[in-house]
Amino acid sequence: MQLEQSLIRKFENYQLVVLVNLSILCIVAFNINPDIFNYYVQYYLLIFLVSVIGLPHGFFDYSIGKKMFGDHKSWVLKFSIGYVVISLVYLSLWYINPFLSLLIFLALAIYHFGMEELSHINYKDMSIVDIITIGSIPIILPIMFHLDDVVFIFEQIVSLQVNLPETHWLIKTLYLGVISYVFYKLSYKKYLSYLVLIPSYILLPPLLSFLLYFCFHHSLRHYITSIYSDKLVPDSFTLKSFITSIIFASVCFTIMVVSILINFSTYAIDVIIAKYTFILLACLTLPHLILNVYFEAKK
User: Which residue among 16, 55, 173, 201 is least packed, with the fewest CB closer than 10 Å?
Assistant: First the structure.
């Protein structure tokens, strides 16, 4: 047990070092020469990093499913059907009402991000206020400080006009004050990564700050917890072969779907990337969230 905790702390420190250095590098580079992260560079980084780092962390859900339902006959088939059906039902809602679906996605993302940030606390002891406050940071801060860019991305995703009001400086100050209070209450040392994440949300374009958070904070921490705490690497794989397999599967799936969209849709490549990335994340987040909440509650 002590060895496991030591490994978790070791890799969490590595993850923090990577996040801090990347964030500082991006902030410095962007302020020296904004063109280094021009419009298309951001979108190509988005599709690449989400495919290689972001999406694969969801493959641990099958290991969670095995832990929870492995004693049931044909659990893999039933689990897969349930997972896919939930995703497809939500995908159909995107077709029927994309704006409502976007709002649901943002709400799901806030809850999911907040719950993951409080994973060191038993699920039954988590405060809904703390979950929403911490989970809202990657969503709310970019909207507050980069409204035009965020609206543009939302309009690409839903293919509708999106109108959001400007945020008054007093509301921004109050929101940052609430965040600071929650971090202080929960022990600020646990949230040192936000010393670079929050400036990233304020100073960097939304897609870039999203990638720093989703890929190099949220996803990497999920890998560490899944591998060393929950022990979700299947027995039939070594750690290296499992990580290689899930990354390969994610990249192949991305190439296949994006190729189909390029050939059979009328959207430009940037819109295809935005729609694919965020709608796919939305459809996978719903079953992923349901499963992980159930898993955490059972633990």
Answer: 173
pTM of the model: 0.92
DSSP string, 167-205: PPHHHHHHHHHHHHHHHHHT-GGGGTTHHHHHHHHHHS-
Type of residue found at 205: P
Distance CA 254, CA 52 (A): 10
Convert the pLDDT of each residue in 106-161 to its tens digit.
Answer: 999 999 999 889 887 877 778 999 999 999 999 999 999 999 999 999 999 999 99
Residues 143, 208: Cα–Cα separation, whole Å: 14
